[in-house]
Specification:
Number of helices: 10
Distance between the termini: 26 Å
Strand content: 5-15%
Strand order of the largest sheet: 6-7-3-8
CATH class of the largest domain: Mainly Alpha
Largest sheet: 4 strands, antiparallel
Order of helices and strands: EEHEHHHHHHHEEHEEHE
């Protein structure tokens, strides 16, 4: 595959010919395809995935105390949000409630409207408005952060990521409602998704340097947005797993902990913790 540095507007890498970032994991065909990818003899695959990285970046950018506390205590953020919007104790949250809260949590990052949320969840627009209102009651600094980001975007006509990459927003003050709302959603999402792109690229650079310094036989073969896939000599797997977790979790100093989950497998379709 070829990786493209400057194709996506948020700074994420994209993959082409073939696009290996787009092979499904949740359907049977995708799983069968992944089984076909195998490491060299004497090597295994190691995957390393940032856990809820965009929500952690939102906590850092907004400095919301409830969001930061949830990550500091390693709480289930979707369960905590569900407890708030459904008015129940966390222990009483059902899987269905948690699934709906997950849509709310990620929808906020992408500037979802009450109408959009109602369609995604199959609920009334009034219910969706209530969910969003309760979310902001729980995480008020997130609302402040979004309002501040939009205000500054309208003034500057651009937003920046954590490492200073600019994304220009020529439509942010447009009289055309659709154009303006798209630019507003872009302004909300870019610092978060672009920040995640900055983070993993920095981690990749640090890992490459560390492997060379230590004479490791491991190397990165694929990046799938918040996840890295590496090919690692079998004899080095334990040490490499430790190095990867260390370098990825300390790639940036944030006000919330970064957490990386690793899996190992003899093919890409059978990765186990």
């Amino acid at each position: 595959t070829s990786f493209n540095q400057t194709v996506t507007a948020t700074g994420r890498l994209s993959s082409s010919e073939p696009n290996l970032q787009n092979i499904p994991i949740r359907n049977k065909l995708g799983q069968r395809l992944r089984h076909a990818f195998m490491p060299e003899n004497g090597y295994v695959f190691l995957s390393a995935d940032y856990s809820q990285v965009e929500l952690r970046l939102l906590a850092h950018l907004s400095q919301d105390s409830n969001l930061k506390r949830a990550f500091a205590k390693n709480e289930d953020i979707h369960r905590e949000t569900a407890a708030e919007i459904f008015g129940v104790l966390p222990l009483k949250v059902t899987p269905q409630m948690r699934r709906q809260a997950k849509v709310v949590n990620f929808g906020i990052i992408y500037g979802i409207s009450a109408y959009g949320l109602s369609r995604d969840l199959g609920i009334s627009q009034k219910e969706a408005e209530d969910y969003i209102e309760k979310y902001f009651d729980r995480y008020p600094k997130v609302k402040d952060y979004i309002e501040k980001t939009l205000r500054e975007a309208r003034e500057r006509q651009y937003v920046t990521t954590l490492l200073g990459r600019k994304r220009r927003l020529p439509g942010i003050n447009s009289r055309n409602k659709r154009t303006r709302e798209f630019a507003e959603r872009t302004a909300m999402n870019t610092p978060v998704q672009g920040g995640a792109a900055d983070l993993i690229k920095l981690a990749m650079i640090n890992l490459d340097r560390r492997f060379k310094k230590e004479g490791s036989g491991a190397y990165i073969i694929l990046q799938i947005h918040d996840e890295l896939l590496l090919e690692v000599p079998e004899a080095e797997i334990d040490q490499t797993r430790k190095i990867v977790k260390e370098e990825m979790e300390r790639a940036m100093k944030l006000s919330v902990p970064l957490v990386v989950e690793t899996k190992v497998g003899e093919n890409w379709g059978e990765m186990k913790s």
